[in-house]
Protein 1
Amino acid sequence: MIFRKPAFLFFILLNVSWLFADPVSVDDIVKTAPITRDRQLQEFQQAFRPGVNSYFNLGISYTPLSSQLPLESPYGVHNGFAFRHHATVFFSIPTFKEKSIDLGAFWSAERHGWDTEDFLFFPAYEKFSFIRSIQTGGITISQPKLKLGGALGVQYLNVEKTDNVYPDQSDSLYFWGHAYWSKIAIQTSFYKTKWRHVRLAIDLESKALLGGDSSGWKTYLPNFDVALFNGESKDSVKVTWEQNLYKQLLYSRVTAFFPDRGFSSATLTLYPDPSRMFGLEASLYRKKEGGYVFGGGIEVPFLRIAYNQAYDIENFFGAKGTVIVELQLAFSTLGKYFFGLNAAKAAPMEDEQVKLPSGSGKGTLK
Amino acid sequence: MKQLFFLITTFFLLTGCLSHWFVESEVRLQVENKTPYTIVGVSVVSLDSTMQKNWIKDTIPPGERSSVVAGDWIGTFNLGVSYIKEGENSVFVQIFEAEELNGGSIFAQISEKDGFWSFNQK
């Protein structure tokens, strides 16, 4: 009896699910590989900052209905589950006698694709399934006082299961290198002897967490990320501009591809606290074939709920037209402080001293 | 100990295919020929009509049923029914567009009246 009510609810959901069905195409799934590669390296660039001790990120997309993100193949629309699981771990610890040099390691993995059944570790591997993993690993060395850092690593793409309805793709191993000095970071990757990308990230915004100002005009300076890709696509330059709009609580982000596509997406994100542990985002995505998609999402620790959010359209095979729930947790640490990726200030801690106005009779020593 | 057992059980339940309990991942299709023609096969035809994958390969005389054949086609597909008319020397194909196939057993009746074909899932 206890199982009947949920089963009934599930039945109703299955019957109305066509209302929010928007298939993902076989091409979109295969073409997400370079986007994931780039996202992992960009995530590394944002996590690897002077003095940052660790960064942890875990995310599991949850779309419980088989008609939510079906697959569009040349034969029609297949009911099933597009999935995306990712995890990133980075830590960097002061070593040697003077504790002046930090040594660390970074590992990021994403397994994504489409399967006829939903799962966490063991896919069904049936016909039409596509399962691929992309892993980025590396070792880091940095000198926080001089704001100098460098990293080297590999990036491995593994096609675990594919089917002949998908475009061909083979496994590949990239090498990458990264270096930063103060607010400038340079990154590159290679496949055999061919370079695949060069990134220049200039974060001019002053961040209290990294020893900068906590307010003032310097916190309103822009952050730029320019990546040049040596791929098959014509659009070889990706430019991202992040701008603090109000007290490091409200940010805008604009992404564009050159020379062909131009404007790609824009977001407006409100962080109730500058530590970025919570976020509320409205986004605008410009489709390749023309037209715009409006969307948004809410992010809290352990959960992200989104509808048509540009982040999902870009990273999750163009997924749109359905509510996407992601079970996720992400935070960085620096000393005893916690904060979200790329945040300007640390989350308020309970052990911080609260200064009350003198004469209030509270909090003063007697 | 009980809590640990509960946690371990929950974890293992979450690792595999959750929907397996609710949704079938194959279609077992059987068709009945209610047309006056002999059906010589049922296939899935690609959206651009250039490719096809055979599903039921039986020859089904009028009034007969095919065998039950399992397939991976869950979703919405174009189904092609190949048939021959008595006294004519060629194979005709009738396409049913955007047929919705849910997982599990499907029994369908194919009929034709005054040139209009129908594919009724019972």
Protein 2
Amino acid sequence: MSIQTTTAASTAQPQISAGRLTHLQRLEAEAIHIMREAVSECERPAMLYSIGKDSSVLLHLAKKAFYPSKPPFPLVHVDTTWKFQEMYRMRDKVAAEYELIFHRNPECVKLGINPFDHGSALHTDMWKTEGLKQAIDLYRFDLCFGGARRDEEKSRAKERVFSIRSPQHQWDPKRQRPELWSIYNGRRSQGETLRVFPISNWTELDIWQYILLEQIELVPLYFAAPRPVVDRDGVLIMVDDDRMRERLHPGEEPMIKNVRFRTLGCYPLSGAIESEATTLLDIVQEMLLATTSERQGRIIDHDGAGSMEKKKQEGYF
Amino acid sequence: MAHASDLIASDIEAYLISHQYKSLLRFITCGSVDDGKSTLIGRLLYESHLVFEDHLAALEADSAKVGTQGGDLDFALLLDGLTAEREQGITIDVAYRFFSTEKRKFIVADTPGHEQYTRNMVTGASTADVAIILVDARKGILTQTRRHSYLVSLLGIKRVVVAINKMDLVEYSQATFNSIADDYRQFAKQIALDDITFIPMSALKGDNVVEPTAHMDWYHGPTLMGYLETVVVDDDTASLPFRMPVQWVNRPNLDFRGFAGRIVGGVVRPGDTIRVLPAGTTSRVARIVTMDGDLDEAVAGQSVTITLEDEIDVSRGDLICAGESPAEVADQFEAHVVWMHEDEMLPGRPYLLKIGTRTVGATLAHPKYRIDVNTLDHLAATTLALNEIGVCNLSTDRPIPFDPYTENRETGAFVIIDKLTQNTVGAGMLHFALRRSHNIHWQEVRVDKAARIAQANHRPGVVWFTGLSGSGKSTIANIVESKLHAAGIKTYLLDGDNVRHGLNRDLGFTDADRVENIRRIAEVSRLMVDAGLVVLVSFISPFRAERQLARDRVESDEFVEVFVDTPLDVAEQRDPKGLYAKARAGQLRNFTGIESPYEAPEDPELRIDTTITTPEDAADRVVAALRLQGIVP
């Protein structure tokens, strides 16, 4: 693991002496350990693949954990039909190399659930929360890896690495198991499933630094480029396809701005930021100088205090 | 994240290279709500410029709404996660926080100081390198200070900071600080803590948290942040003998067989001699494989895949050790046990024990004593309840490799899992193997079970009748025994009431006693099966776990579970011994079906519905089942 650069100075990397691992080496080793424990203690594991940077890191770690074997589980993409086009291209590329299952909630397809007419809360609940539960039930997965991190949001700070869910997929904060040392209890009663978060202890900076070190491929949307956006209540929304063009408010005119995304979800729910960061180094630099947290661009957290906790209890990842 | 470094803007690459080699420190903060613990962590984040503007805006709004600091920022609100807790004003679980400075990345386990939450503190301490113990300068060393310090020491944290907080409220008095530090040193001797650093501070005012203060010129030690950034925790684990619990056998094709695991002690290099425990086989390391290429050396903390020179049998749960200094192997131990579940520990009940990557069956004996975490007194105890800590002997159903916890936290720590709910119900630290574990060898016997079976015209077995009181178990069992006896089968009937008059007369009807009752019967049955008998056991035996224990004591084809299924209202109506009436009148406590639960068998060999089957027909069905299983001809 080292920064790939062209400068001469970087070739003289400090040698890691016995017992002196860097923080990233320790985090990587911990994530690999967690993945191997999880796979060993369940029957039908899967990895939730959301195409974002955290998923990309998770997939990379899975390759390392089981090398020279391939990761012994499929990836699952719970689709909402409202992801950015570039995300779908990335997904198809990954699907060419790994077993990738994608699931769309058929009820949402039938009802045409979308963030414009039904609001972000219902859209997320129906497509993502319900969709994920359906996929887990349909394929009878007993364990699903996710890329959630404890630094993302207050209620996540108390999440276990191995998080037990009831047969109805509910997260009960009172029923979570104590987790000591590096001993993880992956056992389940009838109908229970596990969500496992190997990168729980990573921060946003760790993720970016790791992407940089390991040269992990990302969706180009993370990098600044001229893109058509509209300013809606102070949030820059990208006009990603015709469905958005049909729904422009009176007087709204898409404008081309140099923007990028700090987090990716459904395009009408992901705010862009104006940026000139076109390389990984630029992005890390911009992030280090940033003064707002990454989830700010994500609309679901603003539904009110405790909203993430409520979503989790209902089964949102 | 507003890291204060000019390099970020001027030379991001140089900055990142300098940060690539940061180390990681995990610490735990202990103290009560009143000691200002959350305020301290909030202050550390805030003063390290690690609070984002949107978080800060939320903090300002929250402080105005529910804050306890008048108009000022209430840093504690940065930390309290769950809505319910926020309203109660106490944290009730372990929360992990992250921040980094120019020198280190930190993971903070924030755990509550509230009385009943030993469980959470033990959890947080299990992964910490350093503990910060907060003391209110106005109050000095309190009961809870002792409790936290004891737990820190029990969990093997070697380095402790005693942060004497709220110095602003004692006029920054050096005499107060010294007197508290002296008191603490006296106490610390009892619990074998010796690497202690005392820091006078005010988390509220910011004195000695990140910046040295002008208010206490008599203090020349480090600030808290100064300490955290420089304390050497360098993995004491790397100097230990090599240990790697095998997590997963990697077999992508016939030519590759690697053993994947995280190294939890020492260093390994290709060519090293290793020993695989518990089998004891030896080989040498061929390669250390990673996706980034083979390594010349790997150290404690790294996750790797090892290949060996010889084709020896290695599977998940095995411990690969340095050949010249392997771990011990035993099946009986003394250990500290911390109970973590509302349902108390049941001595004798079969639990699962997970140590490293190995899960085995285990039973705990009655505690030798329980520890009062406030006074450190040893108290007599028959069990352990939630948040209680005791010293127990325990035995595993197979020999397991281990090191004493004080030598290696990773190979000496275990958790206890309930077999039915699969919940983690306890945790513990192994002290040593009991001598008898090494010294008990089975007495070689010339006349063995096979010889006894050969002499009889049938095989031995256990017919286990379970059901509510009054369900008809004994009635049916008696008829079965008469029929078998008539056919020349050697039998014995163990009946709940009869056994309670003799062998088990010291036992009552609490859950713990019921477990012990069945454990003894299971053992007696096993001996009788060994003697070649068909044993008929007629016991209410309300718990699945104990019936499973009895089943596990004999061969799988030697056990027939008969569920005498009579609905509660029917049994109560029959009430042959008048017990239901007594129980309903409150004269008989813990009666099964009334005050104590009955867990019906999920998959018995035979289920008899007594509302539609006569005792005679039921007995015929039992004999038929025995025939089907090949026990009787």
